[in-house]
Sequence to fold (223 residues):
Amino acid sequence: MKIYIDSANINEINELNNLMPIDGVTTNPSIICKENRNNSLELLKQIREILRDDQLLFTQVIEDNYDKLIDQAYQLLNLLGKDTVIKIPVTFNGLKAIQYLEKNNINTLATAVFHPQQTNWAAKAGAKYVAPYVNRIDHHGGDGIKVVKESLCIIKNYDYKSEVVAASFKNTKQLHECALIGTHSITASPNILKQSFSHLSSSSSVAQFQQDWIDKYGSKKLT
Ligand code: E4P
Fold:
């Protein structure tokens, strides 16, 4: 499974990237706004600089007018590098832009997916990635994991080249369920990513090992 950090916070990205096997960073306009920067492009550049070459940066266009959207996509690519994945919301103009960009070898992620048929259209249009919003779907009375599962099924049925990047998580159970159904990738906040790895019983077991050693040997080292 590929795992991305859903954040634009430099400290959080740095911390996690140093500790965990991370495949890249995803951002959206709301996440960037949280950082309160006067120059958001500068922030995106900083994120790109702290990532390795083999790690991906996903960044979202804000325009919805087709021409402006394409123009903004190319500005982001010029600034952040050709490997940047352009996130495009699943509007009609977005769908048109995905088709154009994919024909020009630009990788796109169709974002804000709430129904598997949006996956079908985005994958057919050539989106390299599609992002169903698990928690937002659950929050509105739907079944986020079912949308992920059916998106995976549609991609497989038609041999589309798209991958599902499940997004919008509020708990580790949602993330775990995505792993069980073979979701290609997930993106989650640093907190959710950390919570999905750490366990209180693991911490207390480690503490007990150290205490047993100290009780027996004091400050004597093993090596
Ligand atoms: C990711 O690409 C999405 O923009 C993000 O996961 C949305 O998450 P939220 O529902 O927690 O805002």
Remarks:
- The CA atoms of residues 69 and 130 lie 18 Å apart.
- The chain has a mean pLDDT of 97.
- Residues 6, 26, 28, 111, 131, 133, 135-136, 167-168, 187 surround erythose-4-phosphate (CB under 6 Å).
- DSSP finds eleven helices and eight strands in the chain.
